[in-house]
Amino acid sequence: MRQHNMAPVLAKRFGDPEAVPENLLLWFHHASWDRRMASGRTLWKELVTRYDRGVAEVTAMQGPWVAMEGQVDAQRFAEVRQFLAIQRQEAQWWRDACITYSLRCRGTRSRPG
Fold it and tell me: How many domains is the chain partitioned into structurally?
């Protein structure tokens, strides 16, 4: 099997922070928390907004499921309700862990404005 050196290709594609897709920016670059994103929010606010969205999406799934009680068998209803509760807790945990990790990588424990 022939080996290829991908470094030049990757450097060309991801080397310029202005050209990297926003969802990959922090994988390849250290960027200032006050950097403006396409949404108009700062990088920090955008990061928090995206993690909050994950929590909100699973929370939004819980209401319609509760409304299904009596329309599906009791065991399935209880299991899915429990799984959604676990998913919400884990989404919150993941959000908090990722935000804390981001802060520590930047050498701070307090959230930027």
Answer: 2
pTM tops 0.85 = no
**HEC string for 11-78:** HHHHCCCCCCCHHHHHHHCCCCCCCECCCCCEHHHHHHHHHHHHHHHHHHHHHHHHHCECCECHHHHH
The tens place of each residue's pLDDT in the chain, 113 residues long, gives 444 566 888 888 888 889 899 999 988 888 888 999 999 999 999 999 999 999 999 999 999 999 999 999 999 999 999 999 999 999 999 999 999 998 887 776 556 65
98 lies in the same domain as 108:
yes
Q: How far apart are CA 51 and CA 60, in angstroms?
A: 15
Give dist(CA 46, CA 38) in Å, integer: 9
Shared domain for 61 and 12, answered yes or no, is no
